[in-house]
Amino acid sequence: MPPETLSWLRLVLLVGLVWLGSCREATESRSSVLLVLTDTVRADKLGCYGNERGLTPNLDVFAARGLRFSRASSHAPWTLPATATILTGLYPAEHGAGGRLGDFQGLRGDVTTLPAVFNGAGYDTHCIANVGFLDSAFGVTRDFQTTDIVAPKSNVEMRDARRTTDAALAWLESHGERPFFLLVHYFDAHAVYNPPLPFRERFAREPDRRDGSWLFPTRAQMVALRSGAPLPPRETLERAEALYDGEVAYLDQELGRLLEGLEQRGLAEETAVVITSDHGEEFLDHGGFEHGHQLYQELLHVPLLLSARGVKPAVVERVVGQVDLARTLCRLAGLTPPAQFTRFGHDLLDTELPSRPILAQGNMWGEPLFALRMGSEKLIRREDGSLELYDLGVDPGEQSDLAALRPERVVALEGLLGEVQRYCEAHAAGRDLELPAELLRHLRSAGYAGEEER
Ligand SMILES: [Zn+2]
């Protein structure tokens, strides 16, 4: 081999080694990201959001050490479309994941997901989840390198928070040197509410404190309610909400253990942590129960807590949305977000941002609805075109419809809603699904009946 070829080969080898070294250095200096998604936890159950039952001591301490977004919105009232927004930075009409009971749609094939961006930057990406809608068959978690997703066999038998935290800690223990993006989803606060005995004893109503036999709602009750069966008496739903409180408190204990585990493994300093919920839950706030059926704040107002190196503790009162998370998680990791994440998503760490309209849509059952929030005002449009207007600044519980009193605001907000909606729908189209038979069986046994069962 001529000497000049040998020198050229040496040069190529040297450049390659330097490049590999710089890649390694670049990934090693980047923050890891832990995204915790607590299914069905409404913001007003956390102490740091004003709840006085003492359900969430660990989350309250976490909130005080980082950023707490006091006006954070989900964009859909159930898991599939809401989580797809978190992982794509797109509104439900555009990412396509969601659909209706019995006609579910998957994430569009051409949409970029957050784990795909982390994969491209050399991260380890892993998803731990406990509901069939986060199965990769729906597309939302398709780009995680590895997944540990347990679809509940029924709406009682599920992997609980203790075992979910164990799975997360075991993964943290075993993962290598590279930075990671870990999503951990907890299903405990979702119906059926059935907290472990110590939490029943502390938070349930008197007849249910020691007797662990009463559960609500059973699968049959959930299916019936979604098909329009009358609600049970208020007293039954109050008992149910007390059990739900017990689930939130149990979840808080296990989140505390997860955060402590991060600390003990020496990972806390280099890991940005975001904790949020996909949507809330209704307990007769507007005459209904559960979620997936309307767009009032008990379903859209979600906790959003963030802690990362260099971020000073604060309460952020600006109106923000989970559509901002994909962009922000890139920023926290030091990655450049793709244009898709910045189309609607703002950087949550940017304090100078102007207010902008925030959209919600995508009921799974009940009439199709759209909602638009702009500052403290919120407009809801029903299927028949009728409109409701609320001023959340003075009426956070949405009890006084101002549509008749402020017609000019209704016209302005409806115009904005139409603009955002038209834009999304021009890009929209969900992916038709052929779901594996076993996954369908699990969904049906958890109360998500398709047409043939109704
Ligand atoms: Zn959910």
Written description of the protein model:
With 454 residues, this protein is α/β, with parallel strands linked by helices. It contains 14 helices and 16 strands. The chain has one domain (31-453): Alkaline Phosphatase, subunit A (3-Layer(aba) Sandwich), CATH 3.40.720. A hairpin with an 8-residue loop joins β13 (358-361) and β14 (370-374). α6 packs parallel to α9 and α7 (197-203) packs across α9 (234-264). The termini are far apart. The strands form four sheets. Strands 6-5-7-1-8-11-2-12 form an eight-stranded mixed β-sheet, with helices on both faces. A four-stranded antiparallel β-sheet has the order 13-14-15-16, covered by helices on one side. The protein is globular, with a radius of gyration of 23 Å. The longest helix has 31 residues, at 234-264. Residues 39-40, 78-79, 278-279 line the site of zinc ion.
Bound molecules: zinc ion
Euclidean distance between termini CA atoms: 76 Å
Shape: globular
CATH class: Alpha Beta
Assign the CATH topology: Alkaline Phosphatase, subunit A
Walk across the major sheet and give the strand order. 6-5-7-1-8-11-2-12
Radius of gyration over alpha carbons? 23 Å
Q: CATH homologous superfamily? A: Alkaline Phosphatase, subunit A
The residue-averaged pLDDT reads: 89
Number of strands: 16
CATH architecture: 3-Layer(aba) Sandwich
Structural class comes to alpha/beta
Query: How much strand?
Result: 15-25%
Biggest beta sheet summary: 8 strands, mixed
Low-confidence stretches: 1-6, 11-28, 450-454
User: What count of structural domains?
Assistant: 1
Helicity range of the residues?
25-40%
User: How do the helices and strands follow one another from N- to C-terminus?
Assistant: HEHEHHEEHEEHEHHHEEEHEEHHEEEEHH
Helical run tally: 14
